[in-house]
# Entry
Amino acid sequence: MSPTNFPQRAVVVRAHRPARESVLAASAGDILHPLRREAEWPGWVWCADGQGVEAWVPERWLRYTGRRAVLIRDYNSSELSLQPGMRLTVLDEESGWVLASLHGGDIGWAPVDCLQIIASE
# Structure
């Protein structure tokens, strides 16, 4: 999936359960502490906020200042819990994940490989 025009509609083709319950929520301009990168998630950096909450953050959403990073846009690490057949609206795509909205209004991240874009009707 490589959507370039957002929003786009998608259907869930594979279930997904969030790996973590804690959520890192930060605003543009907030300072984060990059801790590591892994080959499994290229384009993402494991970061901690000032309260010690840790999560993956899209690297393109960070501006580095020495050993710290500044968010260049608001961010929330919430992941969506998905079941096959669910429909959602894709709002953005980042390094193998999409930021999406469920019909009920929940917004969060989901792996691209769990979704199929629905052709415009």
About this structure: The chain has a mean pLDDT of 91.
